[in-house]
Predict the structure.
Amino acid sequence: MEKVQKQIIFLAAVFFFLAASSAQAASLYFSPSSGSYAVGGAFSVALKANSEGKAINAAEGTLTFNPAELAVVSLSKNGSIFNLWTTEPTFSNSEGNVVFGGGTPKNFTGTAGTIVTVTFKAKTSALAQVNFSSGSILAADGKGTNILTSLGDAQFSLGGAVPTIPESTTLSVISGAPSAPQISSPTHPDPNEWYAKKDAKFIWPAPADVTGARLLVGKIPRAIPTVAYAPAINEKEIKDIGDGVWYFHVQLRNAKGWGEISHFRFQIDTQPPEPFAIKFIDGKETQNPRPTVIFDTTDSLSGIDYYKIKIGEGDFFVTSPEIVKSNPYTLPLQAPGKRNILVQAFDKAGNYSVATEEFIISPLEPPKITEYPKELLSGGILVAKGATYPDSQVKIWLQKEKDDVKSFNVKSGQDGKFIFISDEKLKDGIYKIWAEVVNDRGAKSLPSEKIIIVIKRPVFFQIGSWAISLLAVIVPLVALVILLLFIIWYGWYKLSIFKKRLRKEVREAEASLHKAFDLLKDDILEQSKMLEKARNKRKLTEEEEKIAKQLKKHLDNSEKLVQKEIEDIEEEI
């Protein structure tokens, strides 16, 4: 008996401590927060605010319920502490939520200020949970400080369902029962981070003596798990979870009983930040090379993490939401021209929204080079004068024909006039000179018109150069003529030697031919004599007579022909 009394005193002390500690900050809660109702019956629950002694003037929130267990019949603003509504109280029985946002110019201080009353209908036997998924209470301090630190929850027994209270709800832990398991998640590892994943997996160790497990997923931070598994499991995958802050609860059992409960927080945000536009303070076309833009946006759940910006063909660079929110954002220095800006707003879960815009940086008027020499002697100093904006930096560009471009900086005076004096003597050739201007903001002009300046040598050097150039043409030409004459003479010389040699060979051939022909002639004459002797002894046959006549005729013709051909050859050579 004494032991029971001590426990009661201890529980009362704990309850008093919790109540006292909760009274230090504003809260949203349900009234009533529990009750039993028949299936098909209706009951009302008031959403209330406790300001804890501080004046408040606004509050907003979202409550959630299981649409398979409950349905909202109506919402009532009667008796509300608010008469202005930033978000008209609405409900969705398909999504299972009620959303509201209101305020009052008169302020409110109290412990039970009704905001809106919700009438539910019980649809089935169940232990229905109703809780806030988000909320805020703003102090009437002129700053709109959110002083909300506590969101209540409620549980209603529908159709006679009775809450089951596991053994772990007792203050004393059963000796030998499993300790709270260490929950981890490969999909949502960090309880403080946001993830754009609607499927979650959880893992926890299950000692060999564990015979059962109880699990629960919900939005109550320290809920008691009710879904039992026997034998025990050591992992669970849950698909298609909605956005928001969730809690996964695990409790294990062995032969001694149910052990301590582990609670694992995980956060899901699959929606991108709110759409936004890029606005140029100075307009989309400006001479300001560092234009100022506004592209702030919000994310209702995880919040904006950072912005990524890309200008033209450049690389992305990152900026923080604090810089964008506190002040309009000034772009880096831009050269004249038309380009696009792309901004990506990322929330803390990695979702992002995109906005693009086109802008033009108009150039300044280019400088005018007003005085300059069109011609200049080699070795002279170039002096050029011009006019532009007052007290500005002028860049002078100087280029000789196809040589590299050289640049020089001068400054214009208060009257906008400037003067350029080359720091070295210029060699002969054709030069181009032009200019650009940059003001104190970094704005640039386009290049001015290119001016041609001819650098010449003195007359004496020009004549000498002309003579040298002429000689450079004549000398090779004379050498070429001499070479050609030598080739002709050499060819004629070789040809004459060849002809002499050929005449010699022809004469030798003629002599040899005469000699051979004489021998042939003697032989034919000898044959003819033999035929004559035969004629003296006998009468020659007709055939022999014919041969004798032909031998003589052919001999005469051959001698004439050979003589003619030899004469022709001699004429050719």
Remarks:
- Helices lie at 2-22, 321-326, 459-537, 542-572.
- The radius of gyration is 58 Å.
